[in-house]
Amino acid sequence: MNPRLFWLITAILLAFLDGAEAQQLKIPRIGYLVPVSRKSDRNSDVFLQGLRDLGYIEGKNVLLEYRYAEGKLDRSPKLVAELLQLKVDIIVVPFLPGIRAAKEATKTIPIVMVSVVDPVSAGVIDSLARPGGNITGLASLRADLGGKRLELLKEVVPTRSPVIACLWDANAPGPTMQFKEYESAARGLNIQFQSIEVRGPDPDLEGAFRAIAKSRANALVVVDNPVLGPQRERIASFALRTRLISMCESSNSVEVGCLISYSANQADLFRRAAVYVDKILKGAKPADLPVEQPTKFELVINLKTAKQIGLIIPPNVLARADKVIR
Q1: Which DSSP string do the residues of 253-290 spell out, in sequence order?
Q2: Which domain range does residue 260 map to?
Q3: Are residues 129 and 164 both part of a single domain?
Q4: CA 230 to CA 232: how far, in whole Å?
């Protein structure tokens, strides 16, 4: 063989192998947009553990780019833009304004959502079975979830005619949808239901507390979102001081003093989000991955709180609890 031809073929082969190796060594970059602050974020560790269970180790074969909205949901478009500049391969986002911002910013980069509201009604996807576009993931919706919480409160409140105050962020689309669900369920259960609105990102909680006191409510429902979530300790403390029976939407709130919660298992949702990331990195298209609904719901009761407010939890409710804090 002509020596020049030999070396030319060798150079081409080496270049091809180097390119193939470079492709194999490319580390996927995942953008993770968090609605709260780094300190308040309790789900990232679960998501990372889900990735580790699937063989992904942060810094070795996967890179994570975190962005924190710190309760200021209007920052979502800017934070999404920062992730796009970093050329992330996937965006994981667990709150509706962030999901919408990501959808508006890109039609090509896969988006894995963890939504607490109906993403179809919110206009995020076409349907749960066929989401279409570049968004898939999980949605912790159930049409009767608000009703289930109110039914539990009726069992726990020691009066036949409970007055329930609902604390919610009227500036956020997710809580607006959830409040309407509660309102409808309350009518069906003949419950007096009082709306106590705050407006993020800087809610006037003291004003809300005064309004709750004036409402003469027996119980309080708190609609969780990135604005009220970081305030869970203040809200639980207020409920304790005023001997209000409190229903929260997250077990995290029960751990800091809320009386009761009934919700999808958050840890399970974020572990499942890692499964979606794995499928997409292996070539699946978001449009072909049906959106999952949660299969694990948990009732959590704080008996220490019950004792402090002088409440006896009915035995039939206590027997149904998945976790009891004593």
Answers
A1: HHHTT-SEEEEE-HHHHHHHHHHHHHHHHTT--GGGSP
A2: 145-264+297-325
A3: no
A4: 6
For residue 57 the two structure tokens come to: 């180790």
pTM of the model: 0.81
Tens-digit pLDDT profile for residues 156-191 = 998 888 899 999 999 988 889 889 999 999 999 999
Query: What are the beta bridge partners of residue 314?
Result: none
Q: Which is it for strands 297-302 and 245-248: parallel, antiparallel or unpaired?
A: unpaired
What stretch of H or E contains 33? strand 29-34
- Does a cis peptide bond (omega within 30 degrees of 0) precede residue 230? no
Q: Do 203 and 310 belong to one domain? A: yes
Task: Give me the pLDDT at residue 223, please.
Answer: 94
Total structural domains within the chain: 2
- The DSSP bridge pattern shows strands 135-139 and 219-222 to be unpaired
What φ, ψ does residue 278 adopt, rounded to 5°? -60, -45
Could you tell me the CATH number of the domain that includes residue 116? 3.40.50.2300
11, part of any domain: no
Helix, strand, coil percentages in the chain from 3-state DSSP, rounded to 5 = 45, 20, 35
For 70-90, write each residue's pLDDT tens digit.
Answer: 988 899 999 999 999 999 999
Same domain, 281 and 192: no
Indicate if 122 and 231 belong to the same structural domain: no
Q: Which amino acid is at 270?
A: F
Which tokens belong to 189? 């259960």
- Reported as a pLDDT band with limits 50, 70 and 90, residue 8 is low
What count of other Cβ atoms lies within 10 Å of the Cβ of residue 311?
16
Residue 4 has pLDDT above 80, yes or no: no
Residue type, 166: C
108 in a structural domain: yes
Phi, psi of 282 (to 5 degrees): -90, 5
Scan for tokens 């949808």, then name that residue: 177
Q: How confident is the model at residue 23 (pLDDT cuts 50, 70, 90)?
A: very low
Q: Is residue 93 part of a domain?
A: yes
* Same domain? 109 vs 188: no
- The alpha carbon of 103 is separated from its chain's Cα centroid by a whole number of angstroms, namely 17
